[in-house]
């Protein structure tokens, strides 16, 4: 099979949540550059408009709130309108309140679990029928270092990301026979809005960089190759896996 056939995304439609900033924006941008038609989903319409204007390729913004009570079925239907049913789903939207265990409230717990774990499942569930018709689909969830280990002030976030890891395996078991592969990327420390408090402290940022095998924190370009692999035909026999893009953080 040629390189273009393995890694090209022309003819595919991707939906990326959290596309207005951070790793979600980077993922949406790169998939568009790789040839997919991309629907970027986020709460902030102005940020999505800016993303569309700055991104080469076929893109469309979908402003929607994925918080508790969101109508996931209606959002999925809206995501199909610009280019047809997506056959690549990237669940990149995330929430981390960074609360101590004794600070966690039912509201903050529910909001964290809803966005990080519940939405990815039900959004995938809503889009799977379209993928089944094509006999081809790629679901890429965003796991975390906290899927495997505990960090300070991360009990709700860690619980949600631990769930993402197991959910990804369960998605693979449920849908891979239909040609729909489900995998997850688990980033290390990248400078995003979500990790702002980490990078605001040079000592903490340096500590995390030193905890990797490579010796630095992640840069946006580091996510591109792993993402393209999981989104393309190149990963046809890879499903139910968690790929840590962490510079070897979890290897030490």
DSSP helix count? 9
Name the overall outline.
globular
The rounded distance between the terminal residues' Cα atoms is: 36 Å
Q: Could you spell the SSE succession in H and E letters?
A: HEHEHEHEHEHEHHHE
Low-pLDDT runs of 5+ residues are none
Q: Kindly state the mean pLDDT as a whole number?
A: 96
Index terms:
252 residues; alpha/beta; Rossmann fold; seven-stranded parallel beta sheet; 9 helices; 42% helix; 15% strand; globular
What do you see in this structure?
It is a single chain. The protein has helices at 3-7, 22-33, 45-54, 72-79, 106-134, 155-175, 196-199, 202-210, 224-231; strands spanning 13-17, 37-42, 59-63, 88-91, 137-142, 180-187, 242-245. By secondary structure, it is α/β, with parallel strands linked by helices. The protein has a single domain (3-192, 220-241), classed as NAD(P)-binding Rossmann-like Domain (Rossmann fold, 3-Layer(aba) Sandwich), CATH 3.40.50. The protein is built from nine helices and seven strands.
Task: Write a brief caption for the model.
The protein is of the alpha/beta class and 252 residues long. The chain has a single domain, classed as NAD(P)-binding Rossmann-like Domain (Rossmann fold, 3-Layer(aba) Sandwich), CATH 3.40.50.720.
């Amino acid at each position: 099979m040629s390189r273009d056939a393995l890694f090209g995304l022309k003819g595919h439609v991707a939906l990326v949540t959290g596309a207005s900033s951070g790793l979600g924006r980077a993922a949406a941008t790169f998939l568009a550059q790789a040839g997919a038609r991309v629907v970027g989903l986020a709460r902030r319409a102005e940020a999505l408009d800016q993303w569309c204007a700055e991104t080469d390729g076929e893109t469309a913004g979908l402003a929607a709130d994925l918080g508790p009570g969101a109508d996931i079925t209606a959002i999925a239907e809206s995501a199909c309108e610009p280019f047809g049913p997506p056959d690549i789903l990237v669940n990149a939207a995330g929430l981390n309140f960074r609360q101590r265990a004794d600070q966690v409230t039912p509201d903050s717990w529910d909001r964290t679990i809803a966005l990080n774990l519940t939405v990815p499942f039900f959004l995938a569930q809503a889009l799977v029928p379209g993928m089944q018709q094509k006999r081809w689909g790629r679901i890429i969830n965003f796991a975390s270092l906290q899927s495997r280990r505990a960090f300070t002030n991360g009990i709700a976030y860690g619980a949600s990301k631990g769930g993402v890891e197991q959910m990804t395996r369960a998605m693979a078991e449920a849908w891979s026979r239909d040609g729909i592969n489900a995998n997850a990327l688990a980033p290390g420390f990248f400078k995003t809005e979500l990790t702002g408090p980490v990078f605001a402290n040079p000592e903490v940022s340096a500590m995390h960089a030193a905890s990797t095998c490579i010796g630095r924190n992640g840069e946006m370009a580091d996510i591109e190759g792993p993402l393209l692999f999981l989104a393309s035909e190149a990963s046809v026999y890879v499903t139910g896996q968690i790929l840590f893009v962490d510079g070897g953080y979890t290897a030490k």
